[in-house]
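Dear colleagues,

As part of the handover before I leave the project, I'm documenting each prediction I ran so the next person doesn't have to rerun anything. This entry is a single chain, and its sequence is reproduced below.
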Amino acid sequence: MRKKSLRKALLFIFAAILTLLNIAPLLWVALSSFKTRLEIFSSPPSLFPEKWQVQNYIDLINVNLPYLLNSIIVTLLSTLGVLLLSVPAAFGLTAFTFPKKRDLEMWFLSGRMMPPVAAAIPFYLTLRQVGLIDTHIGLILLYVGIGIPLAVWLITSFMRSIHPAIYEAARIDGCKWRDIFLRITIPLSSGGIATATIFITIFAWNELLLPLFLTNRFAKTFPVVLTSFQGQTEIAWELMCAGATIQVLPVIVLTFFVQKYIVSGLTLGSVK
């Protein structure tokens, strides 16, 4: 019993140290966002600012609020678009039998085998041809196309856990496929839908390289703003820290509230 308690204590200490090492850079950036540039590079370094500089956030938001709103709009609409297309697709792949279904599933999965930035040049040429460079619609269409394969794969894996007898019983009772989809499948696979929503939201919110290539002014997202604080002669570290904090905070809050769905998505398929 004593060995078991000691082992738990050691594991807790190890986990606490590992957690501290992971969050220490985030805490340092968050605290530095309230400092002046001189305080950030003071020697010896100070953990807390002498005077909390809220003006850093005010200056940042006053200039870059449109780009923050761009990120919010693109993230929300991209996530909604992915769900509207991937949930019915996953239901069709699990509830029905048709020729080449396995090949279609592998085709969906193959969409995640290439990093999106590898297709940045074809994306740019295509969007330029249809006049969607530097537009919200162009980014949303790309994010939806990139997010659908992962979402279909995740949601399909959850929907497969629904026993076919449930569908058969519903059909015997006179339910149409539309009612089965809305009243049975979606509630029973809510965990998979939530998991896909989290991953797609995080991707759309944090994506940097595609907006960097495909936007200039009107549709520029907030991650691109973070690259603009480095000039030829100086770096606005206090504004960069404030922007990084704003960028990271929504993801931390989202992860905190829905961490159980993230864990279930990461461990999906580990146990049969």
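The radius of gyration is 23 Å. Residues 60-266 form a domain with the MetI-like fold fold (CATH 1.10.3720.10).

All the best with the project,
I.
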